[in-house]
Amino acid sequence: MLRRNTYFLLALGAFTVVSIYLYTSIDSGNAVIQAQENDLKQLQQKIVNLQAVAKGNRATIIKLREELAELEKKPIKSDEEKLHKAPTKSDKELIAEPVIGNKVAHVNKVLTRTSPSYFSSTCDFRSNHSFVRSDLQMLDLYDLWQFENEDGGVWKQGWPITYDDQKVASEPKLQVIVLPHSHCDPGWIHTFEAYYEMQTRKILDGMAKHLGEKEGMKFIYAEMSFFELWWRDQNEETRNKVKSYIENGQFEVVTGGWVMTDEANSHYHSIIVELIEGHEWILNHLGPVARPKAHWSIDPFGLSPSIPHLLAAANITNAALQRIHYVVKRELARKKQLEFHWRQMFDAAGHSDIRAHVFPFYSYDVPHTCGPEPRICCQFDFRRLPAGGKSCDWNVPPQKINKDNVAERAHMIYDQYRKKSQLYKTNVLLVPLGDDFRYDVDFEWNEQYTNYKKLFEYMNQNSAWNVQVTLDEALVKSGERLPTLSGDFFTYADRDDHYWSGYFSSRPFYKQMDRVLQHWLRSAEIVFTLSSIEEEGAVDQKVFNRLILARRALSLFQHHDGVTGTAKDEVVVDYGNKMLEALKACEEVLSESLTILLGLDSAAPMKMDEIRQFQDLLPQRRVFSIDQNVVLFNALTRRRREVKCIHVDSIDAVVELAVKDQLAQQVNPVFETVDDQLVLKEGVYELCFQYSLGPLAAASYRIIKANQTLFARKAAIFASRTIATNEFDFKTLPNDFAVENDHIKATFDNAGSLMTVVQKDFGVEVGVNAHFVYYGARGLQKFRNGGTDYPSGAYLFLPDGKARRLATEDNSFIIVIEGPVVKQVVVAGNKDLKIQQTWSLQALQNFLDVDTEVDLRSKRNFELALRFNTTVKSGQDFFTDLNGLQMIRRKRQQKLPLQANYYPMPSSAFLEDADVRFSLFGSQALGVSSLESGQLEVLLDRRLSSDDGRGLFQGVLDNKRTVSHFRILVEPMKNGGYAQDERVGFHSHVGNFVSSSLLYPVVAMAATDAPSKMLQSTLVEDSLHCDFHLVTLRTLSDSTSYASPEPSTKSRRQAAMVVHRVIPDCRSKLKLADTECMAKPFKIVPSQLISLLKKTIDTSLTLLYEKEEIESFELNPQDVKTVKLVW
Predict the structure, then answer these.
(1) Which residue range or ranges hold the Glycoside hydrolase family 38 central domain (predicted)?
(2) pTM of the model
(3) Which of 299, 609, 877, 1065 is catalytic?
């Protein structure tokens, strides 16, 4: 039977190829022949994919049959069946009865559909679901397309569009939906608050006024950060008026996140934080009727499939998209594929598909939205009337519509609508009517409304045009079948070879600060919730408001001009100050909550082990003293046996551990930079100790003076020049040297460059050859199509050629610190760049840490990268992560320029061949590329003198001394390399742990008057399976009280438990050191984790929708799910 099914699928694929080929052969001409060849290549690739799918299906069917046989033995109704049953009466009260084809219908479908069976073996899942099943696959399309940059005429990046005006009357009526909107950046040229006072307040005031005055007028809005600020200032009359607009469909919230998030650098944890922040506020203050139904992403610079995956889990199932590579838009438009179902590369069934509508032209402003001719479209932006204060670049202003010109003007814009509609399969056309910070004056509200109303009436009455132009909601469905598309839309280019890969690494100081805040906030959320459950009312509500402050600071920075590093200098400083205050707030929450959980009787607040005094300086390490306590908190849901290092003021200091945890301790010298030289720091030492903490466990350890039975071993020092010390053994460093533990060995050359990494357990050696390279910025040039060039800037990466290697002769000082707990190699590098690189190898671990500090302030037009020339035979392929949520296969495209082959690396990348994988994990977002086989490079920082012509009007010259944290993992692989048809990758169990432990290191705090005994608190009663990651445990907010000048929000006795289930790559030969979590079940029972819970409620990701009370839940691999906990 299986063989017959396979043959049938292959025969069907071959028949499809032949049929389409014969059909297209009717035409003639070179262009048609070329199109036929491209179609044939695509179809041939689909047959290859089909063969792989058929092969995978055989294993899947066998597996499903086995599971079915097991279920037949136990015919018990499962929790899954209960979860996915038909809508109940209460469901129908939450979800409007669907009208066929509208947005509500799609939401209803999502809430009531049946998910595929849960996989008990994620290894089987990976082997069967690494092959993409979609009509369009972006990596394959990049191979087919030539990326020519030809002048298309009035549509400069396209072609002349025509239509038969005699046939339109017999076609389905064209529905044109005009969407008045205003895109408001929460920080860019001005700060968030300055924009609010200058423009956004006026925009929302205008909305509240004009929607009530103008019958049928509508408005959509996205950024809830601004809306919340405006809501504070409104009286009840205005608030009720706005709610009525929402109820009657005049005002719509789209996406509803705190910001319109960046999609390249933001981590999925922070994206979920900003989405929940916005959606929770909407439900608390606007009510269920305001739930967002559509996603609006018109300004982020490139698009990630992680966003629709999360939005689908939140039951937002339609998306309007703008910033996609201009050639990608053109090629999709040629085949009317600008509307598609965006499918996840790991989701063969399409259960998280989201319907996408791509706007085809250059920008989302009015000149580029009504049709292909911006000169004409600009004449229908009535804010640009002579009295409106704005003008058209084509020197042809709009005209007010009157009875004398309405026929001519209506035909002009109808012609644009009709031409634009030729690019879509469906008869529904979306036309945005707005721009950045628009509708901030009454003039615009009045002129757009009155003039478009006249145009609408004339067009709708002209039966020959067969068009209905309206402000009403678009129908979601039509009779046309839309294709499925998988992949991402990086790297974005808006014209010429202007690839927006620079912002992947712009302002890396704040990108690193963003990840620190993400970690501190996540830890604070978890301990606040657990302490609230443990002892109700013990945590002051003021502390909860500090937690809200931190949530909103992190959320605000996810804005696509925040974490991107593309704002004005003073705006970046404002973001930095907000994050600094948020870090202090998290410190207070952690102190209060851990004090309760550990039962400490202390009035003195605990302090984090790092001190951040200013937003633009790297943190300093706190120095502990004897008789103080160090409090540790493990924010992971699995046991950790790792090394923690703290600074102490005595060489005799040791940590008093429980007897069962008496592991080795080590004391190291501390070096500091004085006059560009590394010197010993007097009176300060580094104490490193091994600890073991259970899942979400906290412990308080006493620092005491060493004695005969408890002491720390002094490290030995090897250095390239003499170090005067009486406290540590010193020896001269040999030319080539190595550091190693029981599992790995790292070798270095005489310049301190990492040369090889050896996995000792398997005898596998990988050449690494780590070194620095740099790029310059190219000068101005002209393109053959008449385009004008710009230099590199905050957005664009336009190098002046290949990278040059940074000389290692300037590496002035190399220090090796050897001990039983940790080994370190410290290299003082190029003096101009003040490079300091520290390689660390912990006992028991199979990865290597590297911290790189750089300072580019002595340079101009200089971009520094860390490059690894490995011996991995990776060919043209490499893998990078998307928002820390999934890995995507990249392919170096020789037909594209260097800057096009740079991609975002929010957290990791790897190279792989048949035998070995080389992975690089980062705790900050940066740009990454593989420009040759076996090569991986990450861009560390950029300093640029010029503006790149994208509206910022400045270069990037506010550099700081910046640190980047990385981890290197070398993994021997089995069963050969990835298949050529695979488009998605996965980390191993070890790789997932390495990443999560880097992003979420153990929290360490100093307690001054804690008890002398060792205390430990097990905050939860069990751990989760290794494949599960607790994204957050977030206490929910009540409605905010705006009665006083300072808004106040109370916490509820409810929390959102958000869980992600990863897909592990089981081909790695490395095994977890602690396999305790591997034995845990895939079914999560919250009451078994936290016994004080009263109930658990099933919800959508951001809690916009609730279903029923449940006892347990499961997730498919790669799903992110939320349940509400009540206590």
Answers:
(1) 498-579
(2) 0.90
(3) 299
